[in-house]
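A favour between colleagues. Tell me how you read the following sequence-structure pair.

===
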Amino acid sequence: MKILTTTTAALMLSALALPALAQDPANCGTVRFSDPGWTDITATNGVAAVLLSALGYTPDIATLSVPVGYEALKNGQTDMFLGNWMPAQQSFRDDLDATGGIVELVQNLEGAKFTLAVNKAGADAGVADFADLDAHRDAFDGKIYGIEPGAPANQSIHAMIEADEFGLGDWELVESGEQAMLAQVTRNASVPTVFLAWAPHPMNEAIEITYLSGGDAQFGPDFGGATVHTLARQEWVEACPNAAKLLSQLVFDVPMENVLMGKILDEGMDPQDAATEWMADNPDRLAEWLDGVTTLDGHPGLAAVEAAVGG
């Protein structure tokens, strides 16, 4: 398959920017996407699911690890993915781009960051930089707390340990899911602890976090400064332009995601319930997301979503 060029992608996205003239065909009714188990993507998936449902589509969200999720997108088992964190997932993105079958619909978030951090006890011990860690190995029990196995950030930590960067060759990466990692950090409140931290996330409000400098080579500059992108299969975009148009206009911000993630993590809300509540409180966002978008059967999309969420 021919690799999708920047020009081709631009032409496709410009076509999406045109007013919708007709509904999608019935076989576009189910929209398949994946969730890596990260609360930020669970939150944005919740928003997408509520919007799609209100428009008459059926969202089908599979819980898949990052590597498996990318394989599913590449192999046509899913249609789109809202969680392409860059540059942390550059290798996965390169693999997808090489197939020529994937298009980026939009950068859906800016201002994100993702790198190692320490809790207050770690900062009080004098750790503010990657290079400070090994001098305090015993206080940290030689452990770095990461997220689920296979995640790109964990791979970066593994590579750092294997290369003995910053003298961390005899440290251990403890791999677990996001919530298990944060539960461990919470239990370790009085113990120096180094862990993966990121924004947006309500952990930044609940835990006194010091993001570590010095990790530019491992996580990128500006404390792992990141953007998040929405990817989709080229064939799906061409076959289902109305749904793709919605996704191309679905852009978030850090404060919004912090609120949504707090509802999910701290209040125990279902992601779609949290998204519905947020949209009812912020109806002004709906117009930009739904500009030119119809329901699956061709009726005005904004009115359908407003009726569904109470905006």
Remarks:
- The domain at 114-224 is CATH 3.40.190.100 (D-Maltodextrin-Binding Protein; domain 2).
- The longest helix spans residues 39-54.
- The two ends are 44 Å apart (CA to CA).
- The chain has a mean pLDDT of 91.
